[in-house]
Amino acid sequence: MKTLPKKLLSLTLFAIAVTSLFSVRPAEAYTVRLKEVGANVVANGSGAINLTGLTLDVTGIFVPGTMAANLGLIQIGQLANLLGDQYTGITGPTSFGPGTMFFPQANTGSGDFVGIAGLAGDIQVPGGYVSGNPLSDSMTFNSATFASLGVTPGTYVWSWGTGLPNQNFTLIIGGAGVPDGGSTVSLLGFGLLGLAALRRKLSSQERKS
Q: Is the pTM above the cut of 0.85?
């Protein structure tokens, strides 16, 4: 019985460790989700971008709300003339469908200016953007479908640098989201199994005492 408090302490510390797996999570890399919503196509983007490994190409005025799947191009944000920084150095898909440049632009748009041009190997961010800061934006094409916009459902990923966190840009067309490869679920499963085994061991030792 005298050893029980130490074992209970171990059990408590183990539970805290399992809980910490879900209370401390790194910021998600910038991801755009393109979905058919009713009669429209909606794009929502969020996350952070790590500029390490990229080279500043030009600073100028951009107009978000444009998409050309055959060029691997999508630019999201407030529909206005916005100051942006364009960087080179990305690698990834050069297209995400047969669709060509659409004019007029998206019917509505809001938030930070972010864009990718897969064929050109460029990525665009707000002018003066500080690497790692959170970004959020959206745009809507009214009375549109994936077919009318010429985009092919799937997950498209562009990357750069040496694999540091947030050195990638993900476009999900029609998907539910970016899976974490099951790592978080697996950690929870192992954690709960270990916790249950430890509890059984403590109960058995307590009965023997």
A: no
